[in-house]
Each structure stands twice: as structure tokens, then as C-alpha cells.
Specification:
Length: about 200
């Protein structure tokens, strides 16, 4: 199983997409990338108290070059790093002391996470995933689609426990973009959840 979000989760999703013939067929006509936003919430805070989740989260952030990570400066998530956790956005994440991070996380409240968000970009193209990576705020704003929701909602979606379309229809996920295109390619959207995201068990 993989921690969401983490480097291992991204790699496993890319592998699941490559192996799924069902997804390749269902999404063979799909063209369009997504800018995705994961909002911090109470469940995110609870999960961060677990070492494996903290390590996964830091590994996810480490996928970004330092110059990209610095773009979080002054944002709610950047403030969590620098003010609450005492971690410079310039720091070498691999050298951080996870034990100290966990201790400082135990002192955080959900109020500290207000407005704090993580971003990742995924480029889906004719049944393949050409790229998936964490990005800083302000990048890929020209993506064909934008999908945003809380961490707990994202976990329900990527685990396959909740259908993406139902989450959007219930306003738990916010989807921006050409909705007529989405409706015309419903099989691709459903396949993305069931065959790719849910194809990767998360812890």
C-alpha cells in the first residue's frame, strides 16, 4: 500500500495507468490535464501524526525542486512549514528529523491548517498519464481542468470508496473546466477513478 500523497503513490498511479488496458480503452479519446488542489483538514492533521504519513508527505514535497517549493512562501501551507514546523522551504527535506517534525505536528490545530493546500498536476492524454507531479501554487493555472477538495475527500476518491462524479455533484469536490467535455467523456472519468487511482491501495 502507498501513502497518499507521496512519491510512492505517484509512481504507483503512473504504473497502474500504464498497466490498465481498460483505462487505455475507456480514455483513448481523452485530452486534457488537471491541476489538483488538496486542502488541509482535520483528517490530514490526524494522519500526519503517523510516521509513515509524515515521511510520505515530505517525500511528496521533495519531488519539487527547491526553487519551486519556495513559491509556497507566504501561503498558508508555507506558513505551516516555516512558522509552525520551523522548516525552511529551502531545506533539504531528506535531512529533516522526522521525529522532531512529528513532535511539532502534535502541537498543530486545524486552525493552523486553514487555507493550507497542496497542489499536483496530472496530464492525461489518450489513455495514458504523460506526467503527474507536485507543483507549487501558481503553476499550471492554464490546465484544462481544475479539481479541488479537502484531503479527506481526496482520500475517498483515490481509494475508490466514492465515485468522482458523485463527489462533484454533491459539491464535495469542485471541478472547473468544460463540463460538456466531461459529460461526453464520462467513461474516461469513471475509469480514471476505478482503474487508475483505486488501482493503488492507500494506507
Amino acid at each position: 500500500m502507498a501513502v497518499f500523497p507521496s512519491r510512492e503513490w505517484v509512481e504507483a498511479v503512473l504504473e497502474a495507468a500504464e498497466k490498465s488496458e481498460k483505462h487505455k480503452e475507456a480514455a483513448k479519446d481523452w485530452e486534457g490535464d488537471f491541476l489538483c488542489m488538496i486542502g488541509g483538514d482535520a483528517e490530514f492533521l490526524r494522519d500526519l501524526s503517523r510516521r509513515e504519513v509524515m515521511e510520505g508527505f515530505m517525500g511528496f514535497m521533495d519531488m519539487m525542486p527547491v526553487e519551486a517549493r519556495k513559491k509556497y512562501k507566504g501561503t498558508p501551507m508555507g506558513n505551516v512549514f516555516e512558522k509552525n514546523l520551523g522548516v525552511s522551504l529551502n531545506a533539504s527535506i531528506k535531512e529533516l528529523n522526522v521525529g522532531e517534525m512529528l513532535d511539532k505536528t502534535s502541537k498543530l490545530s486545524t486552525a493552523d491548517l486553514k487555507g493550507a493546500s497542496l497542489y499536483f498536476w496530472a496530464d492525461f492524454w489518450h489513455g495514458s498519464v504523460r506526467a503527474m507531479k507536485p507543483v507549487p501554487p501558481g503553476e499550471h493555472e492554464d490546465a484544462a481542468f481544475k479539481l479541488s477538495g479537502t484531503y479527506s475527500t481526496w482520500k475517498m476518491m483515490v481509494s475508490g470508496k466514492q465515485d468522482t462524479i458523485r463527489l462533484v455533484m454533491s459539491n464535495k469536490l469542485k471541478l472547473e473546466g468544460d463540463m460538456s467535455y466531461i459529460v461526453g467523456h464520462m467513461k474516461a472519468v469513471v475509469s480514471l477513478t476505478k482503474e487508475v487511482f483505486a488501482g493503488v491501495p492507500i494506507d
